[in-house]
Amino acid sequence: MNTNISTKIDIEKIVNSRISEVDFENLVFGSTFTDHMFECDFVDGEWQTPKIRPYQALMLEPSAKVFHYGQAVFEGMKAYKDDDGRVWLFRPEQNQKRINISAKRMAIPEFPEEYFMDGLITLMKMDHEWIKPGEGNSLYIRPFVMATEPGVVASRSNNYKFMIICSPVKPYYKGEVRVEIAQKYSRAADGGVGFAKAAGNYGAQFYPTKLAIEKGYQQVIWTDSNTHQYLEEAGTMNVFFRVNDTLLTAPTSDRILDGVTRKSLIQLAQDMGISVEVRPVAVKEILEASNNGTLKEIFGAGTAAVISPIVSFAYDEKEYDLPRLENSYAQQLKKRVTDIQYNRSEDPYGWRVEVKL
Ligand SMILES: Cc1ncc(COP(=O)(O)O)c(C=O)c1O
Fold first, then answer.
1. Tens digits of per-residue pLDDT, 133-168?
2. Which of 62, 66, 192, 342 could join 147 via S-S bond, C-beta 3.0 to 4.6 A?
């Protein structure tokens, strides 16, 4: 991938960095932000000259359409620092493409590829000191677009703001993850926006997730909206099941996000000689596999958590425990993918992109 900058970006640098105030050992995921942010406005039918300026609050009219009609999409990606201080992105072109797939579904104008990449690389170079080396440390990068045109009339906005903000993070999940399989609520429907990273998908998950949390679970495994018979995603992650030595995961669809981690794990697993079946996974077969002892693992896969092993699930108010395995697929795959991300191993796939400082 070409990482030379060709886009003109207006840059205003911070006067005093906030970095010395940050306790990098005790970060709360997604709540500390780096010194700078990238910003580009869509007005008069085109994207204007992008800017990087100190991270700060925005001025928006209260009638801006994003607040009323939820016309907003986002991405989640990470930068990693290796032990030599080199900075790496993981498959950034996938996020660049996906934000435009999401944007299209939400009638948001596509953001030019070179603006995205040049903005991202320039921001990484400016704020690279916020990326700490070491397992689990990374910079979570949040590109997003929102509808900024004022007017409480339910129609697509004429104006938008594209932004990238960055947050230094430690690993996402702490402790054991117990989940509940959805039997009433749905995350997404056929013909809907489940495949897009549309802001409203996440807002709509909060209530069923709150109910699950009140019952002692951390997440919901979402099922298909028509029948609730097929397992689709775990919280905000794609989900994998290991039955005997085969890994199962649902195919992408209208309702499922085409996760970068998911597709990377499928490739890595196949190359490790693991049998992978990408096909609808029925609740029934997972219950049976749990009952007859062939269900070995369930794990979520996504940028934030990388791989999040699930220790138990609930269905029809009944709890099913997963065995605690040594050398699980989850552990093996997590090692493979993070070794590539942190430049600890060869990258035969060309997934790693260096940000030359
Ligand atoms: C609904 C949903 N599914 C899956 C994922 C995992 O995708 P990725 O691996 O690209 O982070 C995410 C996170 O981005 C998500 O929000």
1. 999 999 999 999 999 999 999 999 999 999 999 999
2. 66
